[in-house]
Amino acid sequence: MKKRFIFILAVSIAAAVTGIARYRAPAWEPGQRESYPAFLTSEGVTIAVAPLYTDALAARAFDKNDMITRGITPFAVVVFNDNNFSVEVPGLDIELIHKDRPNIRIKTMPPNEVTWRLSQRDRTWHTQRIPRISPRDLDRNMLEDFDDKFFMNKTVAARSVSGGFLYLHLPQNEKVEDFLSGATLYIPRIFRLDNGTRMIYFEIDLAPIFQQS
Q1: b/e map of 41-55 (b: 16 or more CB within 10 Å)?
Q2: Domain ranges of the chain
Q3: pLDDT tens string 28-67
Q4: Are 184 and 203 in contact (CB under 8 A)?
Q5: With 0-12 CB in 10 A as exposed, 13-18 as middle and 19+ as buried, what is 190?
Q6: pLDDT tens per residue, range 101-146
Q7: Are 192 and 87 in contact (CB under 8 A)?
Q8: Cβ(145)–Cβ(58) below 8 Å
Q9: Would you tell me how many other CB atoms lie within 10 Å of the CB of residue 16?
Q10: pTM of the model
Q11: In Å, what is the CA distance from 163 to each residue of 28, 31, 74, 136, 158?
Q12: What pLDDT, on the 0 to 100 scale, is given for residue 3?
C-alpha cells in the first residue's frame, strides 16, 4: 500500500510539473444574434464580433485565467448566413484597425504561437522572435482547443451559423477597453461558394460594446 501511495504521489507531482492533463477545454458555442452589440449585416450575411477583453471573460472560453495579462485578446467572430448558399470567410485576412491610428493593423496569431506564449513561466510579452515551435513541445490539450476554436477559413453553410476565435496582441501601453472602443474589425473578403464570387467587405465598429457597459 505504501509503495502504491508513493507511486500515485510521484505521478501527481510529475503531472503538476509538466502540465500533463492540466488544461481542460471549455465548451463554447456562438450566442444568439441579438446578444452581440457589435455586428453588421449585408447581402444576407450578419457577422458579429465579441472581444473577450478581460481575463475573466477570456477564461469562460479558454482554460487560462491570464490571457489578457499575457497580452493575448481572443475575439469571437460569429457568422449568421441567411442565404440559400454557403459562404466562406478567410480569417487570416481579418485585421483590427483603429480610427485614430492608421498605421495599426493587427492580424491573428496562429494557435501554436498562442499556446507557446501562454505556456511560458514569464507573463511578460516576448518581443523577440519566438523559437521554431514543434507541436511535440506544446501542451497537446491546449493546442487542440485553441486550434479547434480558431477562426481560420470558416465555411458557413446555407441558413446556418458558425464562428470561432481570432487571437490578437493589442498595444499594451493603454487599457484594452480604451483601445477597443476606437477600433474596427475589418473583414476584407467573403465569398459565396455557389459561384465563387466575392461579396462586399465588412467593417464592424466595436464602440457599441462599450457604450452599453
Answers
A1: eeebbbbbbbbbbee
A2: 2-211
A3: 999 999 999 999 999 999 999 999 999 999 999 999 999 9
A4: yes
A5: buried
A6: 989 999 999 999 999 999 988 888 877 677 777 777 789 999 999 9
A7: yes
A8: no
A9: 10
A10: 0.87
A11: 10, 10, 13, 27, 14
A12: 46
What is the C-alpha to C-alpha distance for residues 77 and 161, in angstroms, rounded to an integer? 11
C-alpha cell at 100: 485614430
Q: Which amino acid is at 8?
A: I
Q: What percentage of the chain carries pLDDT values higher than 70?
A: 88
**How far apart, in whole angstroms, are the C-alpha atoms of residue 12 and residue 195?**
56
Q: Please state whether beta strands 87-90 and 153-156 pair in parallel, antiparallel, or not at all (unpaired).
A: antiparallel
What strands lie across the sheet with 202-205, from one edge to the other?
101-106, 95-98, 183-187, 202-205
Phi, psi of 185 (to 5 degrees): -95, 120
Contact (Cβ atoms closer than 8 angstroms) between residue 38 and residue 208: yes
Grid coordinates of 7? 507511486
* Alpha helices, H only, the chain: 2-18, 55-61, 111-119, 140-148, 176-180, 207-211
Cα 39 to chain center, whole Å? Answer: 17
Place of cell 501527481: 12
Could you tell me if 169 and 106 are in contact, meaning their C-beta atoms sit under 8 angstroms apart? yes
Closest CA to 104 of 96, 115, 112: 96
Closest to 49 in 3D by CA, of 25, 63, 33, 62: 33
